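User: Hello, beginner here. Can you help me understand these amino acid letters and fold codes? It all follows right here:
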Amino acid sequence: MWTSSCPCDMACTASVSQNLVGKASLPSTNMRCTRLGPPVMCRETRKPLVITAMVESGACYLSVKHKHQTSKLITNAVAVKDQPGSSSVAAKTGHELLLFEALREGLEEEMERDPRVCVVGEDVGHYGGSYKVTKGFAEKFGDLRVLDTPIAENSFTGMAVGAAMTGLRPVVEGMNMGFLLLAYNQISNNCGMLHYTSGGQFTIPVVIRGPGGVGRQLGAEHSQRLESYFQSVPGLQMVACSTPYNAKGLMKAAIRCENPVILYEHVLLYNLKERIPDEEYVLCLEKAELVRHGNDVTILTYSRMRHHVLQAAKTLVNKGYDPEIIDIISLKPFDLCTIGNSIKKTHKVLVVEECMRTGGIGASLRGAIIDHFWEYLDAPIMCLSSQDVPTPYAGPLEEWTVVQPAQIVTAVEQLCH
């Protein structure tokens, strides 16, 4: 039996046998907090009590409180494990999601919070999106808020810009980011510039998102990295997610932003799994993430290359190097504060990107570092980028065009000697 007292100093007792049996089942071992049963009335105040249970390592902790009051944790309530022989590992906070599920959760929460948020794109409705980011949305939010469009990127992107001008907050999904080149006019001349050209009369709170980057044998046209195309367009913000945690936080922040935001998602990271908090959180769109502290060299990267760099870092540490790794996340504008503080400590910089070398993010980042932190550099800035060739379909050739961990190790060794 679970027993617990209410905040009124034993004025009443809420017991499973009287109130909860048959109306709620015991949570499985190490589950996060779950609301149980119907409201239980306090005998003294006659106010309803809220009972929350958390099972951890076979023990059930009950939190009993009046509505609109702070919780009082009761730690002496116990319960037998529901499965004999089950692991007694302590429960971890949060829940595990794949990256595409984290994007879905963030988008769903924002659609529930704000009725102005809507989704437009090809197959985003009843099919659930090409990578299932909007799965189940059509049934939940209806066809007007989750709008399936014809194969007409220029048209539905322009429609989203117009919707944003009238007060909605559209999220445009490109089935593949390369297809959005067909909407380049709408994104650059309208989405990016209308706030300025209208004299501030209109804001364009549009989010443009979808899968991109070099996949596995998707061919040249489906392996585009559009960050190099859009970085010079005034008025656009650009961010790249790399983990389920920042994917959800950036999705929510982008939707709430008054500026048009392009959210880059890498096609090979959709099945990346990570534990993220149960509590709501929103990340800053302009903030880089310090992934690893170090003293020898600053490695700046983003998106899929974050994981290549982390893989290379294991080898570097075994060889005696101490790299500092920064996921820049914000591709426009750069977080020069975080980047600069690292350069002032390490005095050496390596940029690792999947974007093309000519006109890519790395080239812009290198220019910004030279402009602001030239006097702190002890060595030339090195930049590892994809080769300036169409991405081959053949697997071995495709691999040769993209930066690999071994190249990162070699570059750091060259910088530090």
DSSP finds 13 helices and 21 strands in the chain. The radius of gyration is 25 Å.
